[in-house]
Amino acid sequence: HMAIYLRWCIENDLMSMEFMDRYEETIERLEDDPEHTDLRLFIRDELSGKLSYSLFDGEGEAFAYYYYGDGGAPYFPADIDDYALKYFGAARYHSDEFRQEAYLFIPFNEEYYQAIAQVIEKRWECWKDQQFSEDTEPSDLALAMMKYLNCPCEYFPPMWDDDPITAAFGYAQRVGVREGFVPVLVAVNETLWETLLANSDPDSETAEDLSFEPTHVRAYRKKFLTMPVKDGRTVLCRMMEHNKADNQDKMEDATDIMDGFQSYWDFDSQMTVPLILAKIPVENPWEIFAYLPFGGWNDCPNTDSLMAVSAYWFKQYGAVLAVMTENTLEFVLPSPVAKKQAMELAKEQYGFCPDLVKQGPAAYSVGTLADNLWQSNVWYFWWD
Asked: What's the pTM?
């Protein structure tokens, strides 16, 4: 992985003049035949097996501190691990075969380099253009919500490019399999805070000092974590009967395909809203709703229905809750559903959340929703 990083930096003119002069011959070989110039040997024999910040020019050094330095997101070694997960598949990656060092067994070839070079390029572009809000410290509300969550949390201030957020979420998904948690991005929002308390600690719902009674919250979570989960298909059928998608049996071309998370953007500032990456200590992803009781208002399903439906969708499609704001949920999947499944799934989603079609931001019909579903690995739900 060091050889890949060094090659990318050489090819993108991020090395110091001293490095360029001293290792001119190696650089020329790399330019003439990059695929067969093995920088692993160069790093071992000429650089004592390590990369130092002093090897880079000013811009290269600053980028290395950002991307290869303190272990925050994005983080180059974590991107290497993510590639290993995709390369070997989840079953092999998380098995004892590699002793948690799967990246060491990836074949070192041009395909590997080109795949990681694309990732580095994405991180580089984000880093060059990134802007943060002036206030980067968590607000009192953010601190209260993290206390309510009572699990490891990471705070993200508003930012122009969400690359650090999606990187941290992706890393947490991979690590959570081994460490026993499910990550979710939670918006810091007063309305969401009031909903959480209204469900789990109604006596504290109007507390102006952002206080709550932890014993009530723990009791609420225990109740829903220990009770049997309803049959999700049965729950969905009742919802579909109540919210029928009349005369919607044909897929229609969608004008906009869902690309990435949508709900945590403030479109006035063109930045993300303040977010918490919460590592929820549950075994199953649908149990997130016991920790974050989102529903039960207007036409939004209540906690036990949200758990039942999300359990069904996880078992059927691998869908996992990823983002929660005051009135939206977004699920992420390993890959989009098959095209032949999309129409029936769209009807399920309409029954679950009719506002998505009736008055949603994309002005969907059930047919265009179906066209979106087989082309995107993100599901979006919004309730008025």
From this structure: 0.92
